[in-house]
């Protein structure tokens, strides 16, 4: 198959991890007889430097005219105080909007050989394998902006949490579809004992459930879900939830594995290409030193193969290679224990190629 991939290296270690990932993608193309074309475009700080714009039109066009988008990371102290108030992160929010990405997927996979570095007990987190699906376009983040006002003679602020039924339905459907591909168990997280939007959420989930008799469904209140993620994360397969609950729960869950440099993510819509990126940021403290762990970005590319290109076998190969590298004890600085030899980004990438 021929696929065009837009590469947005962005800033800091974004450049390094993205480069490592294209090398892995090339190997996959070789192995399976595919052809991947890369078109590079600027985003974030790099684009501010060149165009005074974190998301130039050319970048938007390139993304729209491709089958998948791979992003490194954006941001860094260099752009903290731009005279015009332009921020690298606007590039990321902007491209999500342009591509109409409404679902953010974060798999949390605990590699047995790594869970020593988790703050939780090993038996709780070993082999955790769950997926959080967060709604991206609604809720508190996008409520009508309200003026500050006076209430009872003092200053007050209002945010609005609104969801249209259609917005709930499309994310929930994704959740069921995702569960169908995995262990067929969906947990819908809400706060239906307090919020009207959550009651609509819950009703809608029940309606969509009728189309998925094979998926086991349960509802969980968000406070309980936050607790259960720490108490017994292995009870979860797919969690689907609204924007802010998902923001909080996915950061919480990311710490189950104990290593930020390991976690991939995907944002998908209904038609436009998906956007794939590591959960970590641009890590300015180690940028340009060849120390970055490329595995989160490589795993993000595996998600692209699976969800955007329908290349399940190819994706599995990448995931297996990453797992094997870890089991063999290969470590970059962020996941190495005291005294363990530390690999560079390139050396780690080489190990993944060998495993493939
Ligand atoms: P952002 O605001 O973009 O999320 P951040 O400041 O919260 O960024 P990161 O840039 O992700 O966080 O970095 C947090 C810490 O984790 C830094 O010390 C960084 O060096 C380290 N880190 C992040 N990603 C990696 C990686 N891929 N490999 C090695 N270390 C990493
Ligand atoms: Mg951060």
Automatic annotation (TrEMBL):
Keywords: Amino-acid biosynthesis, Branched-chain amino acid biosynthesis, Cytoplasm, Leucine biosynthesis, Magnesium, Manganese, Metal-binding, NAD, Oxidoreductase. Its cofactor is Mn(2+); Mg(2+). Substrate binds at residues 96, 106, 134, 223. It is an enzyme of class 1 (oxidoreductase). The keyword Manganese applies. NCBIfam families: leuB (TIGR00169). One of its GO terms (biological process) is L-leucine biosynthetic process. Belongs to the isocitrate and isopropylmalate dehydrogenases family. LeuB type 1 subfamily. Residues 4-352 form the Isopropylmalate dehydrogenase-like domain. Gene3D superfamilies: Isopropylmalate Dehydrogenase. It is found in: Cytoplasm. Homodimer. Its main location: cytoplasm. Transmembrane segments: none annotated. It catalyses: (2R,3S)-3-isopropylmalate + NAD(+) = 4-methyl-2-oxopentanoate + CO2 + NADH. Catalyzes the oxidation of 3-carboxy-2-hydroxy-4-methylpentanoate (3-isopropylmalate) to 3-carboxy-4-methyl-2-oxopentanoate. The product decarboxylates to 4-methyl-2 oxopentanoate. Pathway: Amino-acid biosynthesis; L-leucine biosynthesis; L-leucine from 3-methyl-2-oxobutanoate: step 3/4. It comes from Salibacterium salarium. The keyword Secreted does not apply. NAD(+) binds at residues 76-89, 281-293. The gene is leuB. SUPFAM superfamilies: Isocitrate/Isopropylmalate dehydrogenase-like. This is 3-isopropylmalate dehydrogenase. Binds 1 Mg(2+) or Mn(2+) ion per subunit. Pfam families: Iso_dh.
